[in-house]
Amino acid sequence: xxxxxxxxxxxxxDVYSHLSAKERRKYHKLSSxxxxxxxxxxxxGTGIFSTPSIIFQYCQGSVPIYLTLWLVGGIIIMSGLLxxxxxxxxxxxxxxxxxxxxxRSFPNPNGLIGCIYSFQMVLLGFSSGNxxxxxxxxxxxxxxxxxxxxxxxxKIVGVLCISACIWLHIKYPNQGTQLFNFLxxxxxxILVLIIFIGGLAFAGVIDVEDGTPVAPTLVASEIHQSxxxxxxxxxxxxxxxxxxxxxxxxxxxxxxxxxxxxxVAPLAVVVTVLLYFFVILSYLIVIxxxxxxxxxxxxxxxxxxxxxxxxxxxxxxxxLIALSNLGNVLVVSFAHGHVNQELAKSNYLPFxxxxxxxxxxxxxxxFITVLVLVAPPSSxxxxxxxxxxxxxxxxxxxxxTLGLIYLKCNSDKERWGVDQQQIQSNLQYQxxxxxxxxxxxxxxxxxxxxxxxxxxxxxxxxxxxLSSSKRQFSTPGLFIGIFLLANIFLAVLPFIPPxxxxxxxxxxxxxxxxxxxxxxxxxxxxxxxxxxxxxxxFAYRKYGTGSPEVKYEEHL
Length: 556
Fold this sequence. Notes:
- It is a single chain.
- The protein is globular, with a radius of gyration of 24 Å.
- The protein has 25 helices and no strands.
- It is an all-alpha fold.
- The chain has helices spanning 14-17, 21-24, 32-43, 47-58, 63-89, 98-105, 112-124, 128-141, 152-171, 173-202, 227-240, 257-286, 289-293, 299-308, 310-345, 352-355, 358-374, 379-388, 392-409, 411-414, 432-441, 458-462, 477-492, 503-506, 513-543.
- The chain has one domain: Amino acid/polyamine transporter I.
- Helix 4 (47-58) packs antiparallel against helix 11, helix 8 (128-141) packs across helix 9 and helix 10 (173-202) runs parallel beside helix 12 (257-286).
C-alpha cells in the first residue's frame, strides 16, 4: 500500500469530525515548519555559494552597484509574493500554484492555458541541475574532482540522488518530510554561521588571511558600467531567488493554508532574502576584491579557506553544499509531483488517467529528471538544458500579472475581491461515502477524480461561504508594476545580442537559442491543445470513439 496516496480531507469537514483520533492522524498535513522548509530548501540551493562572485564580476567590482542590485532583486521577489498571495487568497486552497491562477485569469478557450502551463511545468520542471551538483560535490568531498559536466560518475550519483528522493516520497512520505524539514533548518544555520563569521571578521575578532577585503572600499567604481552586464547581473540575482512560490504548489497538503500564505511564506522569503544580503556582506568583508573578481563558481570555498584553512574547507564545504542540493531535490520533487497529479486531474496531460495516481506523477518527475541528466552529449548542451527551465516561467509571470490587472480592473464583472462576506470556500469536502471507500479499499486506491478527469469545483465553491472575511487581500499597484516590468525585462533581455568578447558571445550555443526554445515549449503546449482537440473530433466523427471534444477543468 502506498502511504503517499492518503486523500486530502479538511480538518474542518464533517468527515473529519466523525473520524477516531487514530484515523485523524492519517490526515495530518504539512506543518508551518514543513511549508517554510519547502520554500527555504528550494531558494537555497547551490546559488548563494557560487553565483555572488559571478555577479560581482558583472558589476565590475562596484560594491554600491552590487549591493543595490541584491536589494532590487529582493524587492522584485517580494512583489511576486504579494501577487501570488492575492491569487491564492481569492481562490480555492488547492494544489497547482500558477495553474489555478492562470485558469482564473484566462478561462477561454477552455483548456488552452492549462495545456501551455503543463508543458512548461512537466517538461522543464526537473531536478537535474541540483541532482548533478549533489553528485559532483559528494564525489569531490571524497577526493574525486570531476573535470567535465558530462562525467558519468557524477551523473550516476545524480541519478541515485533523485531516485532516493522519489522512493522516499512514495514509500516513506513522513520521513521524507522530516528530512527536508531538517535540511531547511540546516541551511538557515549554515547561512547564519557565515554571517556570524563575517561579523567577527569585521569586528577584528578573527584574523583573515592575506589580502584586503572588499568592504572597506565602499565607494562607487569609476569603471564604466556596461548596461548589458548590469542587466545580466540582475538576471542572475532574480534567478538565485527562485523557489519563493513553492508552498503555493501544494496547498491541498497544508494543515493551515491561510496561516502559511499570510505568515509562513512571507516570513520564509523575507528571512531568506535578508540572510542572502548579509551573507553577501560577509563575503565582501572576508574576501579580497581580486579574489572575489576571479573566484569562479565557488566563492564560499574561498570564504571558508580564509577562515579555517585549506584542508577543512576542501572537505567540509562540499558536503555542506551537497546537503543543500539534496534539500532542493527533495522539495522540488515533492511539489512538482503534486502539481503533475493536479494537471492530470484537470486532464491537461497525455494519459491523464494514469498520472492522477500521485506515485505515477512522482515517477514522471523522476523520468524527466533522469533523461535530462544522462541524455545531453556535451557540457554546453547540459548547462543549456538545465538553465532552460527558468526562462518560460517569466512569460507565465507576465501572463499572471496581466491577468491580475484585468481581474482588478473588472472586479464587479469577475466577482474579484468584491463581496467581503461571501468569499468562496477554499476547503475541499469529501462525502461520507468517499470515506467508506477509503476504509474498504485503503488509501492507495482512493482517487476521487479517476472516473471523470473533467471535474469542476465551480458549483461547490459558490455554495461554501466562509465565516471570516479576513482572507481578503489586494496587491498594491506599485508592486504589480514592479513585478510586471521585471518579468518583461527578464523575457526580453535574452533576445538582445551580447557585446562582442563577452562570455555569452563566445558560447558555442547562439544567444537567441535559449529564449527561443524556452518560448517554443510554451507554444508546443498550445499546439498540443489544438492538435488534441482536432484528433478527438476526427476520431469521434470517423470511428465513433471517445467524445467530440476534450473535457478540461472548468474555470475557478
